[in-house]
Amino acid sequence: MIFLKLILTNLSRHRVRTGISIAGIAFSVAAMLTVVTILQGAVAMFSGLLSDNSQIVVFEKDVSDLFFSSVPNSAVQQIRSWSMVDHANPVLFGVVSSTDHPIITCFGVTAQDARLNSAKWVAGRRADFGAVKDGVILGQRAADFLKAKLGEPVAIGYEKFPVIGIVKLKNGFEDGGVFMPLPLAQQFFHKEGSSSVITVKLKNRGDAAVFKQMVAQKFPTLIALRNQEFDHSYSQFKILKATAWAVGICGLLLGGLGVANTMIMSVFTRIRELAILRVNGFSNGQIAGMIFGESGIVSLIGAVAGLMIGGVVIVGLKMIPALHGYIDSHLQPWVMIAVVVLALLTGVAGALYPAMYAMRVRAVEALRFE
Amino acid sequence: MSSFFVEEAEPARSVVRAVDVWKSYEQGAIRVLNGVNFEAVAGQTVALCGPSGCGKSTLLHLLGGLDTPTAGSIYVHDVKLEPGRSTLQLLRHQMGFVFQLHHLIPGLTLEENCMIPAVAAGTARDAARARMLQLTERTGIVHRLKQPIQKLSGGERQRTALCRALMNRPSILLADEPTGSLDESTSRQIFELLLELVETEQITLVMATHDRGLAERCHRLVEMRDGRVVDARAPEAEVTQGVQ
Ligand SMILES: Nc1ncnc2c1ncn2[C@@H]1O[C@H](COP(=O)(O)OP(=O)(O)OP(=O)(O)O)[C@@H](O)[C@H]1O
Ligand SMILES: [Mg+2]
Fold it and tell me: What DSSP assignment string belongs to B102-137?
């Protein structure tokens, strides 16, 4: 109790200083949380594109980005014919930009594509997709920002396509995307005869290993991965995640320097007090405990404040129309825990030198200073 | 009858002892203590006198284990102090310190300041509190327990420092000009209180002071000059007098 009060007394003696280091930790935690959550969300969304009602994704081996992957139509035909396969749908990804919107994702899909089955139809009819040769379906958000209406043409890139349907989709990329019949997309993106990936559903999950082996044998240029395997191995995801954590950790490092600075000042300005505690029987451990306690409290308050700020920032970003649907504001518990643990570790690291210095304070020398 | 008792009484126990203690700084360039021999026995009160800079504070620090001698040995209860070892236990359970400045911790209350040594030693809460109440009662500050120390008078602060020094029932109280920063009458009051406390609690007192008046009230007066003890009245006779 008194030990705790000693710690709190010290923090409250220099409120501004304490506040600044709490803010340092809070902002770095908020930055980390925001960046990691947004990128995690983006990754989840992107992998959601592939895993929709399927278990396996087939794409070109050794491509750095799925947008560069090329899978021939013939492979789709063959894979469909295998008895273990329930369905195999080719998807062609393409990106176009327009003046108002830097990125519109286009999906070239077959008429029977599962994601259109699970969509909520806001306008138009499911049956028209593929039946109208150059008709496209828009995600609701895409329809909003392209100001498109059912039956009217919409400009995508340099061309115009009639809108035959508007659908509400959960996935932000999909909801902000354009669905084209596969042949139309192949022509539009100059990728005749190929798609980016094949999403495959097996009749029996247990056949996955056999399926992968068969793909490897029959198509030396392709690779089949289970969805989870894909999430872990896709280099774009790895880069994104690593970037997020690197940015976050750099932020925390700065926050940690703030804590270190505060703690150093806190120790230097009360050498005599530390000497007195020593004379009264405080052990090295107790003195270090006091210093670590101080930095721990600063970090903890900072981390909690940071989680709140981060949460507000994410919700705020989510409300920006241009980002709508791209931000997955779902805060994952493990991310929050990781961020708080990192903040606490930072606090401890920041207090290492001050604590060592405090332990080395010699009572005799300190007491001679007036 | 009385002489019979004196002869049969055990020889006074040595509580703290310095044997040929030397202390120098900066590789011997500054020589502060030059072969000090000193002893205080159980229940004794000893005043260390001498001109400023003669090494009184230095000796007190060495006796209390806060510093180590360059040469020579310090014994506490006949156990030799080894550098670094068991200093903590010594500070927690054998030594109490009072300085010229109270050295209380601002931001904590009177009560909390008194409790610091108990916190350090991990004394059970109730026992520590009872001890703190007993001491603050005796020193007449029990009505100010919840005051932050900034709101206390100089005398109250020094009383608090005294209570803190005695919290863990030390066997030795080392006082470095304990009333040096107080006015004449407060100084007398606090000193009387100090003497009364060490007597009832059977504590050995070693006190550095410039105040001859206070020094005369101790059992023994040890005069130092240039890092040496130049005059120490024989303790034995006086202790038996003082204790009886
Ligand atoms: N760390 C140190 N380095 C160098 N010299 C020191 C150190 N500590 C103490 N001294 C010197 O030792 C001498 C004795 O100091 P000490 O404080 O023991 O004297 P004192 O008898 O207590 O004096 P006063 O009555 O003024 O308190 C002084 O000359 C002081 O300058
Ligand atoms: Mg002195």
Answer: ----TTSBHHHHHHHHHHHHT--HHHHHHHHHHHHH
* Cβ pair B67:A278 closer than 8 A: no
Domains, chain B, in order of start with CATH, read 14-237 (3.40.50.300)
Is the same domain home to A163 and A194?
yes
Structure confidence at residue B241 as a pLDDT band (50, 70, 90): very low
* Alpha carbon distance A179, A121 (integer Å): 13
Distance from CA of A276 to the nearest CA of B (A): 7
Q: Which domain holds residue A97?
A: 62-220
Residues A279 and A347 in one domain: yes
Cβ of A6 and B105 within 8 Å?
yes
What is the pTM assigned to this prediction?
Answer: 0.78
Is the domain of A84 the same as that of A205?
yes
Ligand 1: does its nearest atom lie under 6 Å from the Cβ of B25?
yes
Q: Is B38 on the interface with A (CB under 8 A)?
A: no
Task: Say whether both A211 and A72 belong to one domain.
Answer: yes
Question: ipTM beyond 0.90?
Answer: no
Nearest alpha carbon to residue A63 among A241, A194, A186:
A194
CB contact under 8 A, B105 and A281: no
CB-nearest partner of A9 from B91, B103, B108? B108
Q: Does residue A345 form part of some domain?
A: yes
Q: Nearest to residue A85, comparing CAs of A222, A243, A224, A181?
A: A224
Q: Which of A2, A13, A364 sits opposite B112 (nearest CB)?
A: A2
